[in-house]
Write a structure and sequence with these properties.
Blueprint lengths: L4 H12 L18 H8 L9 E4 L5 H6 L6 E5 L2 H9 L6 E5 L5 H11 L3 E5 L10 H12 L4 E7 L2 H11 L6 H8 L11 H8 L3 E15 L5 E12 L2
Parallel strand pairs: 1-2, 1-4, 2-3, 4-5
Antiparallel strand pairs: 5-7, 6-7
Helix pairs in contact: 1-4, 5-6
């Protein structure tokens, strides 16, 4: 199955109305707070000479960092506008981008056929995907890594809902970046905690390592506290 038109349009409108300014998207944090420590967790299990694919790359901030740790990085996103943001910000020949619907199995297979077994980085994609599409997203991870690649997947946990509720109900309401998330109908932390590992296992992925973490955001509460969303990370291998 492919994603619904409503879901596709929500992301397209979000990225179309987002500027190229660093950090305007609430999740567009400095790689030192996310991609850097995540790479340190993945690299003991991964061959750095292999290509890494950033699934759900957005404006490419993380993809550009991954290209400094791996031989080549490919960022893919459902949104054409997001991919255009990423291309405008990138001039390195070790990075490329393409629009891709992760639920389109034939398109994912074609990318694998072109690149071979790759590593995968995927941050906070399953949790906000449409429920009926989540198994296909997990399957896309398995397709891309094949038997030789490794994946780093990090997803928000249910504790993030409490943080987001507090941010939304604070005096003055949610900050402008979180308001935009809600305005476009995006649904962070929508998946249950038990669902993520089940989906990964059903896709044929084996957990090599896992742990708790937080995903720092680029917005703060009224008292100045940065919004850090509870999450869980997995390093994965295929069958």
């Amino acid at each position: 199955m492919n994603v619904s038109d409503n879901y596709r349009n929500a992301w397209e409108s979000y990225w179309t109305q987002t500027s190229d300014a660093a950090g305007e998207a609430i999740w567009d944090c400095d790689p030192a707070l996310s991609a850097q420590p995540h790479s340190a967790l993945l690299l003991p299990h991964a061959d750095a000479s292999r290509t890494i694919v950033d699934l759900g790359c957005g404006n490419g901030t993380t993809t550009r960092y991954l290209a400094t740790r791996f031989a080549h990085a490919v960022g893919v996103d459902l949104s054409h506008a997001a991919v255009e943001h990423a291309r405008r910000a990138t001039d390195a020949d070790t990075v490329e981008y393409q629009q891709l619907d992760l639920t389109d199995a034939s398109a994912v297979r074609a990318l694998h056929d072109r690149l071979g077994d790759t590593h995968v980085y995927m941050r906070a994609v399953i949790h906000q995907s449409e429920p009926e599409a989540r198994s296909a997203v997990a399957a896309a991870v398995a397709e891309m890594i094949g038997s030789e690649g490794r994946a780093f997947v990090v997803e928000l946990t249910s504790g993030s809902r409490d943080v987001l509720r507090r941010a939304a109900s604070q005096p003055g309401g949610p900050g402008p970046k979180l308001q935009r998330v809600f305005h476009h109908g995006l649904k962070p932390a929508d998946a249950d905690d038990e669902e993520i590992p089940k989906l990964l296992g059903a896709a044929g992925l084996t957990v090599l390592a896992e742990g708790a973490t937080t995903l720092p955001q680029t917005e703060h509460l009224a008292d100045g506290t940065r919004i850090d969303l509870p999450a869980r990370w997995f390093v994965l291998a295929g069958r």
